[in-house]
Amino acid sequence: MSSNQKVVNTERKIKSAFIYLTETKGIKAMTVSDITKFARINRSTFYTHYRDKTAMVSDFEDQILTHIEKLVLDHSDEKIGYQDVSEGTPHVCAAVETVVDYLNQEFNMSRALLGPGGDSQLEVKIRKLLGRLIDRQLVEVKGQTGPTKIPDNFAREIIVSGLMSIIKVWLTEGNPETPKEISTIIMKTRYLSPFDLLNVKKA
User: Fold this and answer.
1) To the nearest 5 percent, what fractions of the chain are helix, strand and coil?
2) Which of 25, 92, 119, 169 is most buried (CB neighbours < 10 A)?
3) Is the dihedral of CA 170, 189, 178, 175 positive or negative?
4) In degrees to the nearest 10, what's the CA dihedral of 75, 76, 78, 82?
């Protein structure tokens, strides 16, 4: 086995151990000894890859944040616009589709980090990232971020909170929907009112 393959295998073991321990013990209670024991590696091997537990967690989180930002920016030339989705399936933006596909590829890690035993600060970071990306799209589409039907800060928070809630429900379900189904759900929530989403008939 090549040295590069050994590195890849060790990192995979550490990652698997981290996911398991995050969901069973939580990041705060987890120790390097727990990780090395579950991954079946010695402490010196762990420290060859990471300075400490904090550096390891930061590395995993930075990978997710970097990928999300890159995937969205890669499709920044795709203009958003209103869709009438009251009947039929909406067009799914490429950025939404690729981000959901990525989270599906990293499903276990995303679920662990955003779950009760994970790091609450990761959600804060993702929210800030999404807020910045939404502002950038608005500037490109409207030429400016206002005016909106309600103040910008409230409008942005509603959008970001909705997106995060859908993702977190998806990650915690026992029988999750496919990435395609989640992408469609996300798109529908962008254009339908709460009454439409709940299928409440107009009086």
Assistant:
1) 70, 0, 30
2) 119
3) positive
4) 120
Instruction: Give the separation between CA 71 and CA 116, rounded to whole angstroms.
Output: 26
Whether a cis peptide bond, with omega within 30° of 0, leads into 147 is yes
Please give the single-letter amino acid code of residue 189. T
Distance, CA of 177 to CA of 192 (rounded, Å):
20
Task: Decide: 128 and 156 in contact? Cβ < 8 Å.
Answer: no
Task: State the Cα–Cα distance between residues 136 and 144, nearest whole angstrom.
Answer: 9
Q: 56 in helix, strand or coil?
A: helix
* Separation of alpha carbons 134 and 159, rounded Å: 9
Let me know: does 160 contact 127? Beta carbons within 8 Å. yes
pTM greater than the 0.70 cutoff: yes
- Give the separation between CA 84 and CA 199, rounded to whole angstroms: 16
pLDDT of res. 153: 80
SS3 34: helix
CA-CA-CA-CA torsion for 189, 190, 191, 192, nearest 10 degrees? Answer: 30
Interatomic CA distance for residues 145 and 75, integer angstroms: 20
| Percent of all residues in the chain with a pLDDT value above 90, rounded to a whole number | 60
| pLDDT of res. 132 | 85
User: Would you state the pLDDT for residue 49?
Assistant: 95
CA angle 178, 179, 185 (to 5 degrees): 90
